[in-house]
Design brief:
heterodimer; A: 373 residues; mainly alpha; four-stranded antiparallel β-sheet; 16 helices; 6 strands; B: 446 residues; two-stranded parallel sheet; 20 helices
C-alpha cells in the first residue's frame, strides 16, 4: 500500500461547514461520500469524490449528476427531493433522504427504518417542546403547573396551553402565542441535541455513542495491523477521537444554553441565528460520521483483508473540519487529514461506473441506509 | 445438554429460507445449541455459502480451531478430485477425529474450548500455534501407524484419505505463518496485487519450496483458491528465487495450470444444477479464472484447448440458467410479491426475489464475458415486457385491494427494484412513473 501522502490540506480546507457541505446517503457506488452545498446560483451543488480514486472532487450542479453518472432510482428521486430543500443543513438533508427511503427506494427494511426514525424525531421534538415549556414554568416560579390538566394526547393541546402560558406573559413581556411559537421553533433546533438531565437520548448523543463504539472497535481491530494499514487506522482513530471530544463539548455547550430557558426566550428573537448555529454545531461536527460508523458496522462479518479495504474507503471520506470550526473549538489542533487515496477495483467491476459489482455495492449502501436512518 | 429449544429440521429449513443476514445469524446461534443430526447438518450445508460470507463469530471449540487452516482447501464432496491437493468436506470429520486423538486434553486449549468464548484473530494464532503442530503430528502418526479407521477402508478410499491426510498435515504445520501472511493479502478474490503484496506471495512460496515439493504444491493451491487470477501465483513462482532447477519449477507451474483447468471444469459443470446464486457466483469466478489463464502465451503451461472447452461448457450453463432465471425464476418471485401476504413475509419474499435478480444480473455479465452478448441482449429485450406487464398488473391489483398509500408504494417499489437490478434504472423509472400515476396521480410528475 502506498504511504499516505500529505496533501495541501490547509489550502483545501473549506472555510465553513456550509462550504464543506452535508453528507448525502446516495446508493450509487460512484456517488459514495458525495456532499451537497449551496452554490452561487442559489441551488445546491454536489461534491463527488474523484471516481478514479485520485485526489480531487467533481463539483456538479444538482441536475448534472444524472447526466454524468448512471444513478439508481433511489438517487434520482433523492436528487429531485434535494432540489426542493430550502436550507442545506444536516437536518434537512436527513429529512429529505428519509422521505425518499420511506417510498421503498432502498428496500423495505430501509423504508421501515426511515419511517421509525421519522416518528422518533417527531416524538423527540414534541417532548423537547413540552420539557422546555415545563422548565419555563418552573424557572418563572409557576411551580403549581400541572401537566395532567393539559391532556397531551388531545388535538387542541395548543388551545389548552395558551391559557396557562398567558400567565407567563407579563414576566417575559410576550403574548402567549409568541411564547408558544418561539418554543416550537427552538425545539426544532434543540431536539437534535436534547436537553440535559432528561430521560431520552438525543440523535446527536446516539451519533456520539455510535462514533465511540466505532472508535473502540477500530482500536481493537487495528491492534493487529502493521505498516501503512496501521497508519491509516491511526489517522481515522485520531479524527474520530477529535470529533468525539469536540462533539461532547458541543453538546454540553448546547445543554448549557437550553438550561436557562428564560434567558433563551429573551435572547432568541434578537439572536436566533447565532443560537441556532450553536445548537447545531454538534450535528455539523458529527455529519458524515454516522455513515462512517455504519459502513464499518456493515463490514463486521468480513475477513480482515476486506475490512482493510473498507478502512481505506473510510480514510478517503473523513469529514474535513472547516477553518471556521477549528477556530471556534477549544483545542484547535485538529488532526491533519492526510488523505490517502487508493481505489480498489474489484472483480467484475468497471472502475469508471462501478457497474456489475455495483449490485453488491448498492446493496451495501442500502444496508448502511438502514443503520443510519 | 439439559434443555433444548424445540425445533425440527423442517422448521429450521423453513426459517433459513428467505431469512435476512441478521436473522440467519440469530438462527445459527440457536442451531449451535441443538444436538446435531444429519438433517440439521444438511440445512447448515445449504446455508454454508451465506455463512462463509457472513463469518459469524462462533463459539470457540477445538474442532473449529483445527478447521481454520484447512478451510482454504475444503471443497464440497462433489467437487473433490483425486490427485488434487484439496480436502473433501465429507472427510473432514474423520480428519478431525484422527488429529484430535493426539492432542493432550488438559492445559490452555482444553480450558479455552470449554469457556464458551468467541474466536478472534490474535487468540486464534496463539492457540492454533499450540494445537496445529500436535494435530499434524497426530494425522501423520495415524497414517503411518495404520489407525483402525484407515485400516477399515478399501484400496481407493484409503488412498484418497491418505492424500487428504497429507494435505491437511502440511496445512496444519504451515498454518501459523501461512495464515498470518494470507491475512495481509487483499480481500478474496485477489485480482491484482501491489508490489508489496507480490513480495508477500513470493516470500510464502519461497518458504514453502524450502520445505519440499508437497508443501509447495499445497501452498500454491491455497493461493490459487484465493484468487480469480491464477496466473498471479504462477508469475510469483517464476519470480521467486528458488533453489529449484528451471525445468522442475516449470513442472510445478504446469501441474498447477492443469489442476486449475480441471478444477474449473468441475466447477463449471457443477453450476448446471446448483442453486441460482451459487451458480452465478461460480460461473463468474470460473470465467475470470479462464480469462486469466488465457493471457498466458500459447507456449505457456496452459492447455488452451482445455480452456476453450471450459468456456464452451460455461457458455452452455449460462444460456440455460439465464434463460430459466429471466423467464421463470425471478418472474415467479416477482409475481409472488403481488399476492396478499403479511408484511413480514412480504419483506422476506422481496429480499429473496432481489437476491435472485442480482444473481441473474451476474449471469448477464458472465454471458457477455463469454461472447454471448448478442444472445443476452435479445433475451433481455424479449423478457423486459413481461416484467413491465407484471408491474402494471400489480398496480391495478393494488387499487382493488384498497391498501394504504404507503403499502401500495412499497409494493410498486418491489417491482421497480427488481427491474432496476435486471434492466437498469432507466427501465425502472419508466415503471415507477407509470405506477405512480396509478397510485397517486398528483405525484406522477416525479
Amino acid at each position: 500500500m502506498n504511504k499516505p501522502q500529505p496533501e495541501a490540506a490547509a489550502l483545501l480546507r473549506p472555510a465553513t461547514f456550509a462550504e464543506r457541505g452535508v453528507a448525502v446517503p446516495f446508493t450509487t457506488p460512484v456517488m459514495n461520500h458525495a456532499r451537497i452545498r449551496p452554490s452561487r446560483s442559489g441551488h445546491g451543488e454536489l461534491l463527488v469524490p474523484n471516481p478514479s480514486g485520485a485526489r480531487g472532487l467533481y463539483v456538479l450542479p444538482l441536475d448534472g449528476a444524472e447526466r454524468t453518472f448512471s444513478l439508481t432510482v433511489h438517487d434520482r428521486l433523492l436528487l429531485e427531493e434535494l432540489s426542493r430543500v430550502q436550507a442545506l443543513t444536516p437536518q434537512e438533508i436527513r429529512h429529505a433522504s428519509r422521505r425518499v427511503a420511506m417510498m421503498g427506494t432502498a428496500g423495505r427494511e430501509a423504508a421501515r427504518a426511515a419511517t421509525e426514525a421519522g416518528e422518533r424525531d417527531q416524538t423527540e421534538r414534541l417532548l423537547v417542546n413540552v420539557l422546555l415549556l415545563d422548565r419555563l414554568f418552573r424557572q418563572t416560579g409557576f411551580m403549581d403547573f400541572d401537566w395532567r390538566r393539559i391532556a397531551l394526547q388531545k388535538r387542541d393541546i395548543r388551545e389548552r396551553l395558551r391559557g396557562e402560558v398567558g400567565r407567563l406573559g407579563p414576566q417575559l413581556g410576550m403574548r402567549a402565542d409568541e411564547i408558544l411559537n418561539m418554543l416550537e421553533e427552538i425545539s426544532i433546533h434543540a431536539a437534535t441535541v436534547g436537553l440535559p438531565d432528561v430521560g431520552f437520548v438525543s440523535r446527536a448523543q446516539t451519533a456520539l455513542k455510535m462514533l465511540g463504539r466505532f472508535d473502540e472497535e477500530l482500536r481493537a481491530w487495528a491492534a493487529l495491523e502493521t505498516g501503512a494499514h496501521r497508519e491509516t487506522a491511526n489517522l481515522v482513530m485520531d479524527c474520530a477521537s477529535f470529533t468525539l471530544q469536540h462533539g461532547r463539548s458541543a453538546i454540553d455547550k448546547a445543554h448549557a444554553i437550553l438550561a436557562d430557558v428564560i434567558g433563551l426566550v429573551r435572547t432568541w428573537r434578537a439572536n436566533s441565528e447565532t443560537i441556532a448555529e450553536r445548537l447545531a454545531l454538534a450535528e455539523w461536527l458529527l455529519d458524515g460520521w454516522q455513515q462512517i460508523a455504519a459502513i464499518w458496522e456493515a463490514s463486521r462479518h468480513e475477513e480482515r483483508p476486506a475490512r482493510r479495504m473498507t478502512l481505506g474507503e473510510i480514510a478517503s471520506m473523513l469529514p474535513v473540519l472547516p477553518k471556521d470550526a477549528v477556530k471556534h473549538l477549544d483545542d484547535a489542533a485538529a488532526p491533519a487529514i492526510q488523505s490517502h487515496r487508493r481505489r480498489w477495483v474489484r472483480l467484475h467491476e468497471d472502475w469508471r461506473t462501478g457497474s456489475i459489482v455495483a449490485a453488491d455495492a448498492t446493496q451495501r449502501n442500502e444496508a448502511v441506509r438502514i443503520l443510519d436512518a | 445438554m439439559t434443555s433444548q429449544p424445540m425445533l425440527s429440521a423442517q422448521e429450521l429449513s423453513k426459517l433459513v429460507d428467505g431469512a435476512s443476514d441478521a436473522q440467519l445469524l440469530r438462527i445459527l446461534e440457536l442451531v449451535e445449541r441443538l444436538e446435531r443430526s444429519p438433517e440439521i447438518e444438511g440445512t447448515i450445508a445449504r446455508i454454508r455459502s451465506r455463512l462463509v460470507a457472513l463469518r459469524p463469530a462462533r463459539p470457540f471449540t477445538l474442532r473449529r480451531l483445527l478447521t481454520v487452516p484447512l478451510e482454504p482447501l475444503l471443497v464440497p464432496h462433489a467437487e473433490w478430485v483425486p490427485g488434487q491437493r484439496r480436502i473433501s468436506r465429507a472427510a473432514l470429520q474423520t480428519l478431525q477425529t484422527l488429529a484430535l486423538e493426539a492432542v493432550p486434553r488438559d492445559g490452555t486449549l482444553a480450558r479455552e474450548s470449554t469457556a464458551g468464548r468467541r474466536m478472534e484473530d490474535t487468540r486464534l494464532l496463539e492457540l492454533g500455534g499450540e494445537l496445529w503442530p500436535a494435530a499434524a503430528a497426530g494425522l501423520r502418526g495415524a497414517r503411518l501407524g495404520g489407525h483402525d479407521v484407515l485400516a477399515r477402508l478399501g484400496g481407493a478410499a484409503r488412498l484418497h484419505l491418505d492424500q487428504q491426510i497429507e494435505t491437511a498435515a502440511v496445512l496444519l504445520d504451515e498454518a501459523p505463518t501461512l495464515l498470518a501472511e494470507l491475512w495481509q493479502l487483499p480481500p478474496r478474490p485477489v485480482v491484482v496485487t501491489s508490489a508489496e503484496e507480490r513480495g508477500r506471495l513470493e516470500r510464502v512460496l519461497t518458504a514453502a519450496a524450502g520445505k519440499g515439493g508437497t508443501c509447495l504444491q499445497v501452498v500454491m493451491e491455497v493461493l490459487v483458491q484465493r484468487t480469480d487470477n491464477p496466473v498471479l501465483v504462477m508469475q510469483s513462482l517464476e519470480a521467486c528465487e528458488l533453489r529449484l532447477p528451471r525445468d522442475q519449477r516449470q513442472g510445478f507451474i504446469r501441474r498447477l495450470a492443469t489442476q486449475c483447468a480441471s478444477y474449473l471444469q468441475v466447477r463449471s459443470r457443477g453450476a448446471r444444477e446448483a442453486p441460482l446464486e451459487t451458480a452465478a457466483e461460480t460461473l463468474a469466478s470460473v470465467i475470470a479464472s479462464v480469462e486469466s489463464l488465457q493471457t498466458v502465451g500459447a507456449s505457456g503451461p496452459v492447455d488452451r484447448r482445455a480452456l476453450l472447452e471450459i468456456r464452451r461448457d460455461a457458455g452452455e450453463v449460462v444460456e440455460k440458467r439465464l434463460d430459466e432465471a429471466l423467464r421463470r425464476v425471478v418472474l415467479e418471485q416477482a409475481s409472488a410479491l403481488a399476492t396478499a401476504v403479511a408484511p413480514g413475509d412480504l419483506e422476506s419474499r422481496a429480499r429473496a426475489a432481489e437476491k435472485a435478480a442480482r444473481a441473474t444480473s451476474l449471469l448477464v455479465h458472465a454471458g457477455r464475458r463469454l461472447g454471448l452478448g448478442q444472445w443476452v441482449e435479445s433475451l433481455l429485450s424479449e423478457t423486459r415486457d413481461d416484467y413491465h406487464k407484471l408491474a402494471r398488473e400489480v398496480v391495478q391489483g393494488l387499487e382493488a385491494r384498497g391498501l394504504p398509500r404507503q403499502e401500495r408504494m412499497l409494493c410498486l417499489m418491489d417491482q421497480v427494484r427488481l427491474v432496476e437490478i435486471l434492466y437498469g434504472s432507466d427501465a425502472a423509472m419508466e415503471i415507477l412513473n407509470e405506477g405512480l400515476a396509478g397510485i397517486e396521480p398528483e405525484a406522477a410528475a416525479v
